[in-house]
């Protein structure tokens, strides 16, 4: 009788322990599932996808993040050239940056921030988005290692976007130079949509398809960005100049001149009227 009661008690205890373990496992799974649901909602534009918030106050100025493909395919020769694509691309970007010097001379009080990032399997911030410093940018270009690995375009866009929101300007730009499709990390299509949505259009995106079909990046247009192709080095220089000097800096210059005119007008409105000598 006593042994029978003991067996019953042991059975109840065992069942209770099993149920407790199952409950704990279910709770863990629910937690993981909740995390997955939350992250999916955030990526897909649900309630968790709030607008990006700047790290501090923002004002006039332009901040540009330049993203350079450093994947293995960039070691191939550029069309019509004996040099590899990565050498041609770096020279074209260095020439493009020269436009900033004349801009800064014309608008010395207008903030221009430029950052430089390379991406292959991983993303490296060579120069974070900060006040334009041509020597630092050129040194970073010259010190880039030989291309290798895959192509993490989406991850690079995400890293650049985060730095743009620490730069302190209303105008923000992402400029991507790549010769291939994304092979690692976040989908650039999804990233472009998220950046456009969560920045409410404040981040403009430009893609230059170097020796590649520009239509593979047509999704950028859906996010109110622009895509152009460049088959060779000469075309790459021309496309970068059109985008950087003709659009990015031109927009920034217009904003600066508008601000100056507005400030002058406000000054005239608040100044006391001139007195007429008697």
| Corresponding CATH superfamily of one domain | von Willebrand factor, type A domain
Please provide the ordered H/E string of secondary-structure elements.
HEHEEHHEHEHEH
Strand content: 15-25%
How would a textbook summarize the main sheet? Answer: 6 strands, mixed
The fold-level CATH name of one domain is: Rossmann fold
- Provide the helix percentage: 40-55%
Which strand order spans the largest sheet, edge to edge or round the barrel? 3-2-1-4-5-6
Identify the CATH architecture of one domain: 3-Layer(aba) Sandwich
Notes on the protein architecture:
The longest helix has 43 residues, at 2-44. It contains 7 helices and 6 strands; from the N terminus they run αβαββααβαβαβα. Strands 3-2-1-4-5-6 form a 6-stranded mixed β-sheet, with helices on both faces. Helix 2 packs parallel to helix 7 and helix 4 packs parallel to helix 5 (188-198). The protein is globular. The chain has 278 residues and is of the alpha/beta class. It has a domain at 59-189 and 203-216 and 226-256: Rossmann fold.
What labels would you give this structure?
278 residues, alpha/beta, Rossmann fold, six-stranded mixed β-sheet, 7 helices, globular, disordered N terminus, disordered C terminus
What is the strand and helix layout of this fold?
Layout: H1 2-44, E1 59-69, H2 85-106, E2 112-119, E3 123-131, H3 134-142, H4 153-164, E4 169-178, H5 188-198, E5 203-210, H6 219-222, E6 226-230, H7 233-270
Parallel strand pairs: 1-2, 1-4, 4-5, 5-6
Antiparallel strand pairs: 2-3
Helix pairs in contact: 2-3, 2-7, 4-5
């Amino acid at each position: 009788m006593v042994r029978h009661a003991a067996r019953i008690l042991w059975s109840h205890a065992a069942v209770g322990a099993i149920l407790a373990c199952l409950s704990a496992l279910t709770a863990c799974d629910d937690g993981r599932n909740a995390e997955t649901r939350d992250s999916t909602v955030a990526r897909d534009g649900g309630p968790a996808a709030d607008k990006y918030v700047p790290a501090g106050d923002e004002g006039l100025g332009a901040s540009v993040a330049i993203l350079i493909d450093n994947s293995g395919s960039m070691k191939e020769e550029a069309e019509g050239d004996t040099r590899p694509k990565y050498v041609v691309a770096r020279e074209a970007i260095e020439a493009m940056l020269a436009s900033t010097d004349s801009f800064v001379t014309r608008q010395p009080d207008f903030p221009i921030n430029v950052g430089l990032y390379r991406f292959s399997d991983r993303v490296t911030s060579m120069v974070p988005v900060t006040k334009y410093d041509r020597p630092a940018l050129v040194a970073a270009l010259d010190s880039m290692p030989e291309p290798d690995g895959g192509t993490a375009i989406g991850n690079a866009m995400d890293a650049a976007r985060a730095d743009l929101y620490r730069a302190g300007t209303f105008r923000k730009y992402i400029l991507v130079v790549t010769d291939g499709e994304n092979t690692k990390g976040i989908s650039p299509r999804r990233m472009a949509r998220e950046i456009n949505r969560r920045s409410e259009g404040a981040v403009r995106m430009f893609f230059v398809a170097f020796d590649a079909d520009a239509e593979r990046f047509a999704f950028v247009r859906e996010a109110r960005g622009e895509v152009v192709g460049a088959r060779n080095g000469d075309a790459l220089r021309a496309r970068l100049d059109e985008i950087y000097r003709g659009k990015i800096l031109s927009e920034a210059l217009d904003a600066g001149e508008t601000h100056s005119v507005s400030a002058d007008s406000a000054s005239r409105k608040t100044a006391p009227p001139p007195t007429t000598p008697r």
